């Protein structure tokens, strides 16, 4: 075996063990000896890709792909383009790789994942299921299928598929996460069942932890209750994402004399908003491509006092890092509407509307209530002025709307909306979400309403728009927004209210089914909260029949919202700081989780 061959073998071994930096160094030296070796060049491109240097990876792999028809080369070309967000090119390369090696589970999985990113959900499910057949134990393939099923609004199938996987592989953490996550959308499960699934996820996570947490970690953090605290936020969504519109106003308003903000960003495709978050951080650490142990070590080295997860079970690979006991106080907030199931997470932020007294029984963490509202909303810069009543044709039919994701469109939701449409002659329903760019999803949704007696020509379905500005313009065509159940809208509700569109919601018994209650109370519209199906119908019909009331809302709701607790970032930051300081004082006094905290 030549020296170059030995270097290639050693480098591939390093890549397999997620050590791309060492592999790149070894391969760069080998390429100097044999600059035309396709195997060396392919491995070097892979090393650059794993390190996140996609431009260098692309320059190597694109040239290599032009000169051969090797499936692995086109596969690598595809995943590099995908990592750069260039999905059309990625799809073309991965289709080419699949044509060359149709029985490769790895290629089929990446093809499915790319289709999922492009909201081509039917194809994503097909290729993902093929990958599962080719490699029955492949967690990555199963993961893509489970996410695609949820995105397609097939949460019941996602739940059943995840449950089936857990029967075969009881320690499959991803399947456990998806089963618990999917349960939030299902109107066929009780809160007790959903809580049990979250507890099961937590138990699997504890069993999977690299070390047993039998005793509290000895932290070196100074037990001074009044000193400046290092508060850290861990998230994969620090970009143009729903989480951003609620996190940014908080970070901008936090008192830096009392809190130093550390941000650990696992954002894979940063954008301009990512840079805004970077500017708001006292310490910014990019952990997007770091393995869990490296992320944990970064948190420890920075001596974080309070660590807050922002994703819950939407990013279980990040959440479970908290099993390492990385900070004296660990909490979860904002990005997930339920318990994490992890006993290593001490607290969850909510309010008395989303989690009224008694909600503790469905929460592993202690609840910290940030009354009057647990959220602070910052409207996107791209939002246009709202439409005035004069811009709406006086004889235009009433248009109800929902811009929520498909998985929130439960059978209960369809039933509620169908009753509203049936009782409002000539009315229409406008639905908009990225998944509706998929023709199969549109046909399925039209069929659901047709089966309930609503003609497809009364239900308009829109997919993703080019920009946020175009997204907001779609609200100009609507009169009343209808919330989903049992999983309410959050950003979509705030967006509608900001565009001066009233939102009707049905209150349930879980956090996910009560976020609308919190938002509408925060802006002073509790009369739009229904507590029964009949009330939901009555409220929607009253609004539809009362043009004067709608006109009044369309000329003052934005200012009402701007002046409300929902958009008062200064007051919200003070409540948040007060709550966090209280948790810190508890740790200083003994380090034991206390009873539910409610800030003054």
Characterize the structure shown.
There is one protein chain. The protein has 600 residues and is α/β, with parallel strands linked by helices. It folds into three domains: 3-208, Tetratricopeptide repeat domain (Serine Threonine Protein Phosphatase 5, Tetratricopeptide repeat), CATH 1.25.40; 229-376 and 571-589, 3-Layer(aba) Sandwich (Rossmann fold), CATH 3.40.50; 389-567, 3-Layer(aba) Sandwich (Rossmann fold), CATH 3.40.50.2000. It contains 25 helices and 13 strands. It has helices at residues 3-16, 20-33, 38-50, 54-66, 71-83, 87-100, 105-117, 121-134, 139-151, 155-168, 173-183, 191-208, 242-253, 272-280, 292-301, 316-319, 411-422, 439-451, 468-473, 491-498, 515-522, 533-545, 547-554, 557-562, 569-589, and strands at residues 229-235, 259-265, 283-286, 306-309, 329-332, 347-350, 366-369, 399-402, 428-432, 459-462, 480-482, 503-506, 529-530. Strands 3-2-1-4-5-6-7 form a seven-stranded parallel sheet, with helices on both faces. The radius of gyration is 25 Å and the shape is globular. The model is unreliable at 212-216 and 592-600 (pLDDT under 50).
Could you give the distance between the termini? 73 Å
Q: What is the overall pLDDT average?
A: 93
CATH topology heading of the largest domain: Serine Threonine Protein Phosphatase 5, Tetratricopeptide repeat
Reported CATH architecture of the largest domain: Alpha Horseshoe
Mass-distribution shape: globular
Rg over CA atoms, rounded to whole Å, is 25 Å
Helix content: 40-55%
Beta-strand percentage range? 5-15%
Order of strands in the sheet with most strands: 3-2-1-4-5-6-7
Number of helices: 25
Number of strands: 13
Unreliable residue stretches:
212-216, 592-600
What's the main sheet like? Answer: 7 strands, parallel
The tally of structural domains comes to: 3
CATH top level label of the largest domain: Mainly Alpha
> Which class of secondary structure composition applies to the elements?
alpha/beta
CATH superfamily of the largest domain: Tetratricopeptide repeat domain
